[in-house]
Amino acid sequence: MIKIDHLSKKYNDNVVLDDISLEIRQGDVVGIIGPSGTGKSTLLRCVNRLETPEKGTVTIGDKVIGLSERKPKELLYLRQNTGMVFQRFNLFEKKTALENVMEGLIVVKKMKKDEARAIALEELKLVGMEKWANHYPKHMSGGQQQRVALARALAMKPQILLLDEPTSALDPELVGEVLDVIKKVAAQGYTMLLVSHEMNFIRHVSNRVIFLDKGHVVEDGTPKEVFEHPQNQRTREFFSKMHIMAQPEYVI
Amino acid sequence: MGKLFDVSLVFSSIPELLTKLPITLELAVVSMLIGLGLGLVMAIIKMKKIRVLTQITNLLISLLRGTPVIVQLYVAFFGIPMMFKAINQQFGTNLAVANISGFVYAMIALGLNQSGFMAEIIRSALQSVDPGQIEAAHALGMTYPQTLRRIILPEAFEVALPTLGNSFISIIKGTSLAFTCAVVEITAQGQIIGGRTYRYFEVYVSLAIIYWLVTLVIEQIIRVIENKIRIPDQVELASANGEGKKNDKN
């Protein structure tokens, strides 16, 4: 189980996250939605300490990690147990797909090369990129790069996978392949926090949806509850705007 | 009266000059390494904005870039022994400065001089690395030194290589001033030959040929390295078991 407690983050005077607490069960796929600038990405980035919040803790298993403290050992534990997938893939440019996936295993987990290679190939197979093992990121399409990035995060066997808008930087026709892989990974029982604007996808893949607005959790429930019977005024507004977009321009 | 310009002398003095080429190259390589090492440290200090050290580094870079190499060589050659002498007088110690060869002074002065330029070259190269990749490395649990060594430096090196090549070529030529520290490298040897034969002009022409050839070789070496570290344009698909033709180099 993973717990986030009293997480607060502000940039200067701008409060992005206001005392957020979440409890995530093993195997949960939690979709985080909400308008832009409400701290969805910041929430993920605070959980693995790419941003340092003012206060807040993360509990992984029975270990409590203070997010605002600077303790290298705790930080390492936190990062080993949280896998991050970025919007812009962020693959290591000078390394092949295989080396990208092996990097964390060798440097952080201190694995032997053969062992790391075996695991990396397995993960690349899972995302359907084993044939591209020796290619560099610049040879790959965005969708392929994101799949390798997913394999890189999975290879570390994190307790929780953080996906920060994994498809927003992709061409529409490449979105599908990445979503398919995420679905496959979710089916394997990985715990995930997924920030995305692909509402339909969130609706299908997640078993819990959180609506974030101005740094607060304003809606929290199953996809059916949140998408079909939103309780909060702000959530209803958000969806009604989206539905207007989805409606045909005119009907004869 | 002899010939105005004796071509044969140009070539006949080359073998004697070449005996000092190792000293020129050694001095250049060592100064380059000092420059790279110090430059990297200064670049990181400036990038990380470490207090006090940043100001000291800025002052040092400004001094090193703002004064001529020949002045720096003289300052090192005369200044360092004077400093030691003062220390000896002050504290009654007996630090033997006379045993230090001119090569060491030249090495220190040229290395320091280069580090001032290197710091800026390295800093701009380090900053050219996509911050997203650094974040990704941190997210995996890599520390800054690990990220620096495995992710940032390999990418920055490729960016910096052409400029570093330039610097190395300018050091090679900078070593010709090392005579100020009583180092006999090829230019000093040329002056000795000139003094012996009164054929200064021919000797300087031979020197020009040698420097130019050395530079040509270095240019070629840099080109080879550039091709080697560049990401290949095409890679074959790996076979089903993932074993490809290219060996990974971890």
What does this 3D model show about the protein?
The complex is a heterodimer of chains A (252) and B (250). Chain A has 252 residues and is an alpha/beta fold. Chain A has one domain (2-246): P-loop containing nucleotide triphosphate hydrolases (Rossmann fold, 3-Layer(aba) Sandwich), CATH 3.40.50.300. Helices cover 40% and strands 24% of the residues of chain A. Chain A has nine helices and ten strands. A six-stranded mixed sheet of chain A has the order 6-7-8-3-9-10, with helices on both faces. In chain A, strand 9 (208-213) and strand 10 (216-221) form a beta hairpin. Chain A is globular and about 60 Å long. The mean pLDDT of chain A is 91. Chain B has 250 residues and is mainly α. Chain B has a domain at 21-183: MetI-like fold, CATH 1.10.3720. Chain B has ten helices and no strands. Chain B has helices spanning 7-12, 14-18, 21-48, 53-66, 69-91, 102-127, 131-140, 144-174, 186-197, 200-229. In chain B, helix 9 (186-197) packs antiparallel against helix 10. The radius of gyration of chain B is 23 Å and the shape is flat. Chain B starts with 6 loop residues before the first helix and ends in a 21-residue tail after the last helix. Residues 242-250 of chain B have low confidence and may be disordered. Chain A binds chain B through residues 48, 50, 72, 76, 79-80, 82-84, 86, 88-94, 96, 98-99, 102-104, 106-108, 113, 117, 121, 124-125, 130-136, 138-139, 149, 152-153, 156, and chain B through 130, 132-133, 135-143, 146, 150-151, 154-155, 158, 231-232, 234-238, 240-242, 244-246, 248, 250.
